[in-house]
Isochorismatase-like domain-containing protein
Amino acid sequence: MLLFIPSPLISRASHADHPSPLPFAAKILNIPIFITTQNASRLGDTVSELTALVPEGTPEAIDKTAFSMLVPELQSQLQSLTSSANEKLSVLLVGIETHICVTQTTLDLLAAGHRVYVIADGVSSCNAGERPVALHRLAREGAVVTTSESILFELVGDAKDDKFRAVSGLVKETKEETKQAVETFCRL
């Protein structure tokens, strides 16, 4: 599943113009998407360019004031994906702010026993220096910090898969953003 934390504070230069391929790939790979917003009544609505990327049928965004996405409303939606209360999920996480909402969501998901993949080229922070620090911390805490290219090909698994061509096209379109994310992560 893909958890998506868009925000009105997102840097338009970093994400609205060059969004992660994951919302597109989620539709191709039939991955459910869940979205939260951060205190929309005070901070404003989500960046419309990002909202437009989300496939039809995605549950409505959950507005929250907690920094973590793991609020009761989302927890009940996640439970609907499992056959038992003890079943653990694999979660792909993208959004902002890496050092606040993404970090607290990741830590809560890890504490609940879920496998968390933080997508380095799918997260950002208003203060760019916070991002690599947060990504390193999350890796030390047990999250898998990876790129959209890496996780998408891992999910497809084989070039013979009928979804390979579509996913490969998405990866090519976002190659530069993936490169920048890797360079940012490797600076520390």
About this structure: The chain has one domain: 2-185. The CA atoms of residues 2 and 92 lie 5 Å apart. The domain at 2-185 is CATH 3.40.50.850 (Rossmann fold).
